[in-house]
Write a structure and sequence with these properties.
With 104 residues, the chain is of the alpha+beta class. It has one domain. It is built from 3 helices and 5 strands; from the N terminus they run βαββαββα. The chain has a 5-stranded mixed sheet. Strand 4 and strand 5 form a beta hairpin. It starts with a strand and ends in a 5-residue tail after the last helix.
């Protein structure tokens, strides 16, 4: 995981790297965690957030994930938002654990 102190364009640097996720402060408050695509222009991620999180929000997502400030998971499973940086990092670690050997 790569943690940025603020949002900045990152794809050209992180796509060719071993990074699976990038975490950064959200302009809407809290933090975002985004999966890194397998290649430039690809919609396939190196590691996606868990399927059961897809499209879920707030209390339902927090209950499913066990992550207290997890607010939203995009239905495409490439983006989550949280209230705290540590919870964004927990979400990334949970995604890697759920993917198991499917991480590439």
């Amino acid at each position: 995981m790569v943690v940025l102190p603020r949002f900045a364009p990152w794809k050209s640097v992180l796509v060719p790297s071993d990074a699976l996720f990038v975490v950064y402060p959200s302009k809407r408050g809290g933090f975002s965690a985004q999966a890194v695509p397998k290649s430039q222009g690809s919609e396939e991620m190196k590691c996606s957030f868990p399927k059961r999180w897809a499209g879920k929000e707030n209390a339902e997502l927090q209950k499913i994930s066990g992550i207290a400030s997890l607010r939203f998971c995009h239905k495409g499973r490439f983006l989550v938002s949280t209230g705290k940086e540590e919870d964004a990092l927990k979400a990334c670690r949970a995604a890697v654990k759920a993917a198991g050997s499917n991480v590439k």
